[in-house]
Amino acid sequence: TLFLILFETLISYTYCLSMPVPFIPLKFCIIGEDVMLPCNCEMEENIEYLVWQIGEHRVVDAFIKGKRNQDEQDEEFRNRTKLFFKEKKGNCSLQMSLVSIADEHIYTCIYETSSVNQVHVSLQVAANYSRPDLQLLSEPKIEGVAKTYTCTTKGGYPMGKIHWLLNNQALNVTMDARDNITGCYNLSSSLTLKLFKSDVLSCSVENPRL
């Protein structure tokens, strides 16, 4: 149909325009929360098309010829997105709910008036790690023998790092990181040493995005 031809032409045309991209602003979101991807078209009054997409042809949401169109919408975004353009002219932003790791992409807002305009937004997500759990793995019965301690934390994203401190001095200790079924990380680190009564041993977790 004429509608599909126009729609496909718009997507192909904007893909050709999208390279190179000199600067792409970042938008951060906590996994499981909602995020607003900004696209300001305030100065444009007669917008014919508004399309949010990933890459060349993956449509996140679209507003075509006066109404929202979900026929071409990617299944992963069904019932998770909202456009505000119809209610508030000049606001071409996209709201996305229940954000997950799979939503990390560069998104392109495309709107057409007398020319085709593009706004790019890179979405990065993060998840807080649980409070680090420091435990003594074994309790030797012999006094003065080195003991093994472990520090664990769960459910964070992206991959973080466990830090050990002994009397406020950093220790260089290896770490094991495992990706669980949600895509988040569980971290674990162990060390063996002999502590005296005055020693203070602690561990913490670092998330590079939080």
UniProtKB/TrEMBL annotation:
One of its GO terms (cellular component) is membrane. Residues 132-210 form the Ig-like domain. It is found in: Membrane. Residues 1-16 form the signal peptide. Pfam families: C2-set_2 (PF08205), V-set (PF07686). It comes from the Eukaryota. InterPro entries: CD80_C2-set, Ig-like_dom, Ig-like_dom_sf, Ig-like_fold, Ig_V-set, IgSF_BTN/MOG. Keywords: Disulfide bond, Immunoglobulin domain, Membrane, Signal, Transmembrane, Transmembrane helix. This is Ig-like domain-containing protein. Gene3D superfamilies: Immunoglobulins.
